[in-house]
Amino acid sequence: MAQTYEVNFDGLVGPTHHYAGLSYGNVASLSHKNQVANPKEAALQGLRKMKFLASLGLKQGIIPPQERPNLSALRLLGFDGTPEQILKKAMQEAPEILSAVWSSSSMWTANAATVSPSFDSQDGRVHFTPANLSCKFHRSIEADTTGKILKAIFRDPSTFAHHSPLPSSAAFQDEGAANHSRFCKNYGEPGLQFFVYGRTAFQKSKVEPKNFPARQTREASVALARLHRLDPNRVVYAQQNPDAIDAGAFHNDVVAVGNSNVLFFHENAFLDTEEVIASLKKKFHEISSSELKIVQVAESEVKLSDAVKSYLFNSQLIHLNQTSREMALIAPQESQEVDAVRTYLEKLIRDESQPIREVHYFDLKQSMQNGGGPACLRLRVVLTEEEIAKSNLGVYFSDSLYHQLCAWVNRHYRDRLTSQDLVDVSLLREVQIALDELTQILNLGSIYPFQLGS
Ligand code: SUG
């Protein structure tokens, strides 16, 4: 069997990270609107998490931030003139649009794309579809550059298949891997792909959330499975519980996380839970002749509201090291701070009927205050040794890259940013200088509009 890894590609937080309250339905984003952000600390917090995972012997990669502000989006909306004039007009006439085009939201790479490993695709290639993120304007402007970055990392067309984002329409809203998991006995064997959606588009869903938007459609999930050439017998679809969306679980990864042969989730995460679990277990057994382990957390142990507040299920569920079957949770510090959640986790790791043995808490407050926990910050890509060798090695983590990136962040990032700063054209220039240097550090060539003259 080819040596195979699940590589975590973390989004490096961009130099324009700020709190704009752009994501209706994401409780943290709305409640931290206009708070002062610290982009430097945000990026360093993310890098520390990557360093820890790499220190366990897990493979870690990096996805660079996008160029912001996205001036072409402003031009499309009728703002014209020099960059200074465009920023000034947008600030006067539409400050919320100005904030959106400066957003550093591409850092949440769980939303960058849906990825299917070569073991699952009928043509034996690794498939990537950048998410159109069409539910939110500030996120919808990520898809194009995301595609370019993924192509710059995974270059060889006989090994990697890159699809265009799904049509940008309400019918095909797609939020990427945040609503997608893959279960397998070993990474290097065929797996079961699990797609979770919030609503159906063409036939109205039986139930839908009442307060907050469902960001992913079933039609989008089905199209992804088709594009990625998945065997329909190795796919399960499930609808998110509308109550979970209304409680603030705008992506399924706020209430569920899977790894290998384990699903860890809140009992109110899905609609028709019993059927969903039965179908996952049955198909998993057919594929792997082994058992899918279910770690279901009851409302009586952790309330849905506490799950959303603590982001417990937005932990990364990882193997303790490259060879172990036992697992650890990389949890946000907020999970330690909510009493019921901390107590639950203390009990969980003593329960030997399930494989989660350790919990490591991380301070990711800068990202968390915008609704992005440990799992939001990473895109998982299952790759064989050979596929890794065919990808761009410049983006893989090492101690020396860690030090280089920390120095780069310290050199270029501000430690204070508010919406008032977004009219400042010198910030635009700072970002371009920083990103130009970053593409050299990561050996990515030209990927940004300012480098491509577009
Ligand atoms: O899309 N927040 C992101 C958080 C994404 C979290 N990702 C996952 N769950 N996988 C979002 O809502 C807030 C930006 C602001 O308000 O400034 C934001 O976009």
Which structural traits does this protein have?
454 residues, alpha/beta, L-arginine/glycine Amidinotransferase, Chain A, 3-stranded mixed sheet, 35% helix, binds N~2~-(3-carboxypropanoyl)-L-arginine
Describe the structure.
With 454 residues, the protein is an alpha/beta fold. It has one domain: 5-stranded Propeller (L-arginine/glycine Amidinotransferase, Chain A). The chain has helices spanning 27-31, 39-55, 71-76, 83-93, 95-102, 137-140, 143-153, 218-227, 242-246, 273-288, 304-310, 333-337, 339-348, 365-368, 385-390, 399-412, 425-441, 449-452, and strands spanning 4-11, 60-63, 113-116, 126-130, 160-162, 180-183, 192-197, 235-239, 256-259, 262-266, 293-297, 316-319, 327-332, 356-362, 378-384. α16 (399-412) packs antiparallel against α17. The mean pLDDT is 97. The chain binds N~2~-(3-carboxypropanoyl)-L-arginine. N~2~-(3-carboxypropanoyl)-L-arginine is lined by residues 19-23, 26, 29, 103, 105, 108, 110-111, 139, 178, 250-251, 253-254, 370-372, 376.
End-to-end separation: 44 Å
**Major sheet details:** 3 strands, mixed
Residue stretches low in confidence (pLDDT < 50, at least 5 long) are none
Oligomer: single chain
Which shape, going by the Cα principal axes? globular
CATH topology annotation: L-arginine/glycine Amidinotransferase, Chain A
Number of helices: 18
In percent, how helical is the residue content? 25-40%
